[in-house]
Amino acid sequence: MGTSALIGLLLCLVYNVSGKAVVVHKRSSTCYGDLGCFSTSSPFFSLQRPINFLPQSPAKINARFLLYTRQNHDNVHFINMNDYTDITNSEFSGGRPTKIVSHGFLENGFVKWMKDMKDAFLTEGDYNVILVDWGGGSKLPYTQATANTRVVGALIAKLIKLLQERGDAKPQDFHIIGHSLGAHIAGYAGERTPNLGRITGLDPAGPYFAGTDKLVRLDPTDATFVDAIHSDGSPLITLGFGMMQAVGHADYYPNGGNNQPGCDKDPISSVLVEGSLYDGGKQYVACNHLRSYSYFTESINSRCPFTGYRCKDFDSFQKGLCSDCSNNNCGQMGLHADLHKPRAGTVNTKYYLDTSDNRPFC
Known about the structure:
Blueprint: H1 3-14, E1 29-31, E2 37-39, H2 58-61, E3 64-68, E4 77-78, E5 98-102, H3 112-124, E6 128-133, H4 142-167, E7 174-179, H5 181-191, E8 198-202, E9 225-229, E10 250-254, H6 267-274, H7 277-301, E11 307-310, H8 314-318, E12 330-332, E13 349-353
Parallel strand pairs: 5-6, 5-7, 7-8, 8-9, 9-10, 10-13
Antiparallel strand pairs: 1-2, 3-4, 3-6, 11-12, 11-13
Helix pairs in contact: 3-7, 4-5, 6-7
């Protein structure tokens, strides 16, 4: 793919596919009932966000919550937040930890990677697993999808509150995992949920979020423990969709945080490996970005610990200057990152590690 084609693709992602002019909302606000009001003024309007939209309505976004447990492993239960008896009539149990998983831009809650992660969780432990489908709001243009994340985060916070009230759940037992825009959705949910247990950001989206105020993006105050995997931190102009900026208590940078091994396949090879034009094209364009959820899913049941080494930068790590795991200098990337947290009171602790170019990555 040539440079001009890449630039054209990026413009399509930020604006729209048809090339028609996009109406940009003036700085204003809108309110959606018990979700509250959403403004396009500062800090949501900034140099990093020159084109700013108001979020669409909950009805337009049509977020759905798909509940799975070991009791209904393959039979989804769609949680109805408008039916006060729905939680008590479902397989949800407040005595189990709950994993909430959100997709990002241009996806929905039925994509294969989310199913794979759900299956891995239910193999590893007795969880409530809730997949978030906000496909109605994740479409083009990207600027509108970024705005919609705020409403989706508010809806997840509302769901967690409902599960506490009707399912006897505790906020510290919730773990929200979000990929790309989903990582910032998790942040918005955590901001509204006191004592939320954990958030894991899987290559948090960079465009419209990197360098912004912490109210706009995922940050360490959004949960008791926030960890992130950065796999695609290259500049957007070279199709880097993530961010290098540390956003958690523990930030993991596999292979330096960009240029993941095995992501250099040509388009034809990508299609042949993935088995379809859509999946192959997605891997070719965004392989580095997608690796974050592949690493996390593998970590759930892997005996290999994905050991990350605390280091000031990737260059120092490559020189072997950070290979000592004593004094809490190492962590585990992925699900088990909470077993080796940074020292209390520290944030943005950076860990580096290498992976292989194919499964198993560790």
